[in-house]
Design goal:
The chain is of the alpha/beta class. 44% of the residues lie in helices and 12% in strands. It is built from 15 helices and eight strands. It has helices at 32-38, 46-59, 73-84, 102-111, 128-135, 139-162, 181-194, 216-229, 249-258, 280-288, 301-312, 333-349, 382-393, 402-416, 422-432; strands at residues 27-30, 63-67, 93-99, 117-125, 166-174, 203-208, 236-241, 263-266. The protein has an eight-stranded parallel beta barrel, surrounded by six helices. Helix 8 links the parallel strand 6 (203-208) and strand 7. Helix 4 (102-111) runs parallel beside helix 6, helix 7 (181-194) crosses helix 8 and helix 13 (382-393) crosses helix 14. The longest helix is centred in the middle third of the chain and has 24 residues, at 139-162. The protein binds 3-methyl-2-oxobutanoic acid and zinc ion (ZN).
């Protein structure tokens, strides 16, 4: 471990978070079809990308990075298919990624011809490590790469805009997390100048972790410091692009939104390079359970999961927040009992709030069912079986019956050595009463 350089916290890293509240959803941008796709063992073909694109549209994502058209023929073809096939709704903006290199920029302009709304996203790496190890240059060197690209893009964009395209710009100082904040602000301000950014034409400054190697509060401090240092901050939309190397992508996004960012680039279920990008679903539903409308529709999460698994050929883990197979189950008797009591309480009180212990969200809100909330195995208590009878079959067993029926069910689970499905519990009820 001694070969790793520790991350040096900024001066405010000791401050307690949060000192603000998250009251509204960020602008969402999906990078599934680019960052997510480039990290797949078996990248999506055009049909899979199309299905995925339409799924994102149905969820309500309005900005979608559709690929890296100058990187490969498939990427280019997909962009053309979307545009020529009329697949892009009028209220959706496609985003295309390109390195800050002239011939790739030219190819990318060819790829977007005829599109109505486009975000032209270019990047180059700026961190101390990348400058030293990969590019052998200094801050002035990486700034020049960014500004030259910005000038070229601005010039080329004018004819597309004149032809009616709504074209916006996005710049990412890749490896922002490892860049000195003064340098990042200087480079980004020069890019804003080169792109003629103003409050009417805000440019997206996308600040990636690229590799997540510090604590979420440190990164949020970086965002806040960057915003303070950036000349003409109001000319920019501050965007996040957290990766998840330390497993803290969601926390990083949440704290950084509190620190002043307005937009998040994310993927469904956190697909993306290495440990993935920040998970849009968890982030959105965390907002949702805090009483903030995420403005994304996850009311049929199982359908989204099916598309995801089919197109990416990857499996979602059983404990993945909100969507995992097991996240609405309770195996322990005390949990089952509390859920049972919460359900009864809500019914009796006509409560307008979600007041069921152990279930952070109503499963119905994501299109999941009550029935699998409780599965009965040898660890279940007396309340569990009664709950299943009520939820699955509408039978309200009198309280006095719960212990005896619980024992019958428990004996059966011990005999079978497995959990019992609701149908078997019903049969036991019929057999014994
Ligand atoms: O993670 C990253 O830095 C990226 C950039 C290209 C935005 O994906
Ligand atoms: Zn990325």
């Amino acid at each position: 471990f001694e070969k790793y350089i520790p991350f040096v916290p900024l001066k405010r890293a000791h401050r307690a978070w949060p000192d603000k509240e998250l009251k509204q959803a960020p602008i969402w941008c999906s990078v599934d079809l680019r960052d997510g796709n480039q990290a797949l063992i078996d990248p999506m073909n055009i049909d899979e990308k199309l299905e995925y694109f339409h799924t994102l549209v149905d969820i309500g994502v309005k900005e979608i990075e559709v690929g890296f058209p100058s990187a490969s023929e498939v990427e280019y073809e997909f962009c053309r298919t979307l545009i020529e096939g009329g697949h892009i709704p009028d209220d959706v903006t496609i985003q295309v990624l390109v390195q800050a290199r002239p011939h790739l920029i030219e190819k990318t302009f060819e790829a977007i011809e005829g599109a109505k709304h486009v975000i032209f996203h270019f990047y180059n790496s700026t961190s101390t490590l990348q400058r030293k190890v990969v590019f052998h240059t200094d801050v002035a060197g990486v700034k020049k790469i960014a500004v030259d690209a910005a000038e070229m893009i601005y010039t080329m964009a004018q004819s597309a805009i004149a032809a009616g395209m709504d074209l916006r710009y996005e710049y990412s100082p890749e490896s922002f997390m490892g860049t000195e904040m003064e340098a990042a602000a200087e480079i980004c301000a020069a890019v804003l100048d080169a792109l003629h950014a103003d409050t009417g034409h805000r440019v997206i400054l996308n600040l990636p972790t690229t590799v997540e190697n510090c604590m979420p509060n440190y990164f949020a401090d970086e965002i806040e410091t960057f915003i303070e240092l950036l000349p003409g901050r109001e000319r920019a939309i501050i965007s996040l692009h957290p990766h998840n190397d330390r497993g803290e992508g969601v926390a990083t996004a949440e704290l950084s939104l509190l620190a002043g960012a307005e937009r998040v680039e994310a993927t469904l279920f956190g697909n993306g390079e290495r440990t993935g990008n920040v998970d849009m679903v968890t982030l959105a539903l965390n907002l949702y359970t805090q009483g903030v409308d995420p403005e994304l529709d996850f009311s049929h999460i199982n359908r989204i999961r099916d598309v995801y698994e089919r197109c990416t050929k990857m499996k979602i883990g059983p404990r993945q927040p909100y969507v995992g197979e097991l996240v609405f189950t309770a195996f322990s008797g005390s949990h089952q009992d509390a859920i049972n009591k919460g359900t009864q309480y809500m019914r009796e009180q006509g409560s307008e709030y979600w007041e069921i212990p152990y279930l952070p969200i109503d499963p119905a809100d994501v299109g999941r069912e009550y029935e699998p909330i409780i599965r009965i195995n040898s660890q279940s208590g007396k309340g569990g079986a009664a709950f299943v009878m009520q939820q699955s079959f509408g039978y309200d067993l009198p309280k006095a019956m719960h212990p005896e029926f619980g024992r019958i069910v428990q004996r059966e689970t011990e005999r079978m050595g497995t959990e019992l499905q609701p149908q078997r519990i019903f049969e036991l009820f019929r057999e014994n009463y």
